[in-house]
Every structure is written in structure tokens, then in C-alpha cells.
Design the sequence.
């Protein structure tokens, strides 16, 4: 019998993998992919709670808002990465240290 | 094992397995294509959870929009003839320790808590979502549309080439 807890474990695995990518990747586009994993993990949890625990549709509506914010985030982040690449000729985040004192 | 359990495990393995490829693959383009399977796996989980509208939205926006934008990001920040788009990792050992600890904490919290609440009876969701968006959630809906407009104009402003620079 598949229940809420199965989905919570899948969400936890997706979230932890996203955190792992966030901590270990140097490439900015790869970090963006990890953020998408984290947002998807949150969405899986929201929809699972909407199905098994809340008894209403609020979780699914929240998930739609998360998707909207993810789309806006990717657009702005890609613009920043491209501008940085034009400036420094590198997509690596640890080389973008212009503000370092 | 029931049919539902078999389908769930199939989608769960596809989702988590390809998410691991996204994070651990050394070739950037492999990560991008593994992300495709992660998004499809999550859409399958939505279908299993009775969220049909959300599954369609996931495929349309994540696979059709966000993944294409990410591929643009991969292609525009590397020279195309650079065949091996390699990407290094830093602090892999400590990152694995933090992520594994986080997974243990989150999963054990989810498994050991006695979850209360009433399940929602599965059924078509699209009409209900539309009614809620134009009723109870009208203000967040309008704010989200303004946010999208502002973000897209801002992205275009940031990335355009200035004539004087």
C-alpha cells in the first residue's frame, strides 16, 4: 500500500540530492539544475500532503505558484549567468570573486 | 505488490536515479538530459497522486520551458566545439556527508511522524483549480502574473548589450 510516507521519502531524496549539487558543483548552470531539483522536491511534498492529509486542493495551488516562481527564477538567473560569462569568460561560480575585498 | 505500488516504485526509481545523474555526472549535457527524466518522473508521481492538471503543467512548463532555458544556458556559456563540457566538483566528501545527514533527518521525520488528516477523494482537478484561482486565491494569482512580467522584463534588461559599454 503506497501512502504519504513513500512520497515524503522520495521528496527527501530529491531535496538532499539538490543540496548535494548546490554544495559541490562549480558550474553556475549546474547549480541552477540543483535548485530545480529542490523546488521539485517541495512540490512533490505539497501535492502528496494535498492528496493524503489536507483533504483539499491548497497544496496543488501552492505547487502551481512554485512552478511560476521557478520559471521567473530561471529567466533571471540565466540572464545573470550570461552577463557574468560575458564579463569574466567563465561559468564557474568560485571565479566570480570581483566583490572580494 | 499491487499495480499502484509497481508504478510508484518505477517512477520513484526513475526520478531519484536520474536526479543522482544530474548531480554527479561530470558532463554538463548529460546532467541536462538526466533532468528531463527527473521532470517526467515527477510528472508521473503527480498522476499517481491524482493531480492531473499539475502533471500536464509540469510537462509543459518544466520540460518545455525551464529545461530548454537551461540548455540555452549550457550552450551559451560554452563554446559549442568544446566537445567535452566537463565540470568539476569541489568539496565532494563534505557535501556528501551534509546531504546524507539531511536525507536521514528528513526521511526519518517523515516516516516516524503519525500523520493525521483526511485524504482527498481522487477526481478531476482542473475545474476546481480554476475556480479557486479566480475566487479564493485571486490576489496571489494576480501577484504571480505581475511577478512573471517583472522577472521577464528584468531578465531582458540585464542581458542586453549596452551600446555605450
Sequence:
Amino acid at each position: 500500500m503506497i501512502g504519504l510516507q513513500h512520497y515524503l521519502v522520495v521528496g527527501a531524496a530529491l531535496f538532499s540530492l539538490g543540496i548535494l549539487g548546490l554544495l559541490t558543483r562549480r558550474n553556475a548552470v549546474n547549480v541552477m539544475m540543483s535548485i530545480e531539483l529542490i523546488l521539485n522536491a517541495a512540490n512533490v511534498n505539497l501535492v502528496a500532503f494535498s492528496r493524503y492529509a489536507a483533504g483539499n486542493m491548497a497544496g496543488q495551488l501552492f505547487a502551481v505558484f512554485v512552478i511560476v516562481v521557478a520559471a521567473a527564477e530561471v529567466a533571471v538567473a540565466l540572464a545573470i549567468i550570461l552577463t557574468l560569462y560575458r564579463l569574466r569568460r567563465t561559468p564557474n561560480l568560485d571565479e566570480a570573486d570581483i566583490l572580494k575585498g | 505488490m499491487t499495480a499502484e505500488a509497481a508504478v510508484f516504485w518505477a517512477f520513484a526509481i526513475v526520478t531519484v536515479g536520474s536526479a543522482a545523474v544530474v548531480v554527479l555526472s561530470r558532463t554538463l549535457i548529460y546532467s541536462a538530459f538526466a533532468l528531463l527524466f527527473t521532470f517526467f518522473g515527477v510528472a508521473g508521481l503527480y498522476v499517481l497522486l491524482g493531480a492531473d492538471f499539475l502533471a500536464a503543467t509540469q510537462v509543459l512548463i518544466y520540460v518545455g520551458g525551464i529545461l530548454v532555458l537551461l540548455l540555452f544556458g549550457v550552450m551559451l556559456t560554452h563554446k559549442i566545439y568544446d566537445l567535452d563540457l566537463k565540470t568539476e566538483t569541489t568539496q565532494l566528501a563534505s557535501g556528501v556527508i551534509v546531504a546524507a545527514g539531511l536525507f536521514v533527518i528528513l526521511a526519518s521525520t517523515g516516516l516516524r511522524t503519525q500523520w493525521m488528516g483526511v485524504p482527498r477523494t481522487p477526481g478531476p482537478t482542473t475545474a476546481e483549480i480554476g475556480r479557486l484561482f479566480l475566487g479564493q486565491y485571486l490576489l496571489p494569482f494576480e501577484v504571480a502574473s505581475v511577478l512573471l512580467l517583472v522577472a521577464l522584463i528584468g531578465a531582458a534588461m540585464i542581458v542586453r548589450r549596452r551600446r555605450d559599454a
User: Anything to note?
Assistant: Chain B has a mean pLDDT of 88. Chain B touches chain A through 83 residues (CB under 8 Å). Residues 52-76 of chain B form the longest helix (25 residues). Residues 3-83+122-159 of chain B form a domain with the Four Helix Bundle (Hemerythrin (Met), subunit A) fold (CATH 1.20.120.1200).
